[in-house]
Structures are given as C-alpha cells and as structure tokens.
Amino acid sequence: MHQHHSGPPTRVEYVLFDMDGLIIDSERVYTDVTNQILEPYGKKMTWDIKAGCMGKPEMDAARYLYSFFSDIPLPIETYLAEKNRILDEIWPTVTLLPGARKLIQHLKAHNIPIAVATSSRRKKFILKTGHLGDVFDCFEGKVICGDDTEYSMRGKPDPDIFLTAARELLGRNVGHPLEGCTYVQRRERSKGLVFEDSLPGVQSGKRAGMSVVWVPDPRLLDVGYSGKERADRVLGSLEEFNPEEWGLPAYDT
C-alpha cells in the first residue's frame, strides 16, 4: 500500500485513534514477547504473519498466528496465558510513539471531538495507559475497547468499532454497521478521520466510510496486501501529520 491522494480530503469534524502501534510503542513489545515464547519450538513470527495479526482481537490474532504453526505442541491457551503474564509486567513502562502527544494535546486544546477505538481489552488498556495520563486524559474517558460487550461489535477489519465510537462516544449520526446507511449518515461518516497502523484497521476505517491516515511500521510496507481499501494518506510517523490539510486547526508555531 503506497501513498494515495484522492484530491482534497473531506473537512474533518472528529478524529478516532487506534492505540497499539499508533499512540504507544506496543507492537514492538508484542513481537518480542511472542518470539520469545515461540523460540524453544523453533518458530518465529515474521512480519508477513504479524501483518495479519495486527488490529485483531486477541483470540482472533492468536488463531491466525497458529494457522502457520499447525505442528506446534504448545496449546493456544497456554501460549496466551504466558504471553499475557509477560506483557502485563511490561505495559506500565510502554512509551509513546513520536508525534502522538503533540497531536492529541493539540486536538484537545482546540476542542476537536476525539476518541480511542482499540481492539485491546479494557483491563489491558488501563495497564498500558495508566502512566500516560497527560495524553490519555485528553480523551476524557471516550474509549471503546475490543471487549466492550454492550456494543456487540465484530472485530477489525469490520467497521463496527469506528462507527460505534463515533455514534456512542461522540454522538455522531453515523448509523449502525449492519443497517442501511442514509445519505445524511454517509455524509456524517465522511467527516471522521481515523488514524491506524494496521492493515485490518485501515480496512475497518474505510469500510466505516471515513478518511484514514495510515502510520505503518516501515516493515509493513513490504507485506503483500490484496484488499481493495486504500488509506487516504500514508505517513512515516504522526509527526508528519499536517492538520491544516484536513481543515483542522494549525499547530501553534
């Protein structure tokens, strides 16, 4: 997936953020811990495999990983338990990625409606963000997590999580993913901007009818991608984002 320009982007009125690998440097941690567990079995999660795991709910991602290692004698439940045990010790020290603090605090300061839509479970979200209050407090609790069962959401790449965040957290008239979409709702969806790092996340945002800025790990650019959905912009980091291009307030000089 390469840089894509489709003319002037829609003027943005609200912004939705993925979290893992976009705001916080957690995808690198996931990779390291997964390969630490797989190493005794002579297995390794390559970037081709990881690309299909990113952005998915935990069990979906684990099943996808295991589809490449059908002969591994490690039960998937044991793998997940060990992975979570190690990760839970690391999450309270995870760091922000470049440009995240500046952008989120900027949007908050200019009263742009913002929310987080993450496949992370609520308990993990708290572990990952508790020490990063100067950034995550900007969302004022407007966070949808992958295990928020009251919304009956399908995981990414389906559009549910972004439509749910826009509708339930920001009060936008975007409708429901499994119902017909009116012209008014389609227009309302087009006013949303999604920031994502994963390919399933890009698909989810585009299927929700929103603009998508993709901020991938550079190694993802070498991974084959057969989906028809394309990001509206591809950036090396959030530091490269130009708010004015989207009708958002300019950064203070």
TrEMBL record:
Matching InterPro entries: HAD-like_sf (IPR036412), HAD_2 (IPR041492), HAD_sf (IPR023214), PGP-like_dom2 (IPR023198)
Name of one Pfam family that matches: HAD_2
Source taxon at top rank: Eukaryota
A Gene Ontology molecular function term of the record: phosphatase activity
Protein name: HAD-like protein
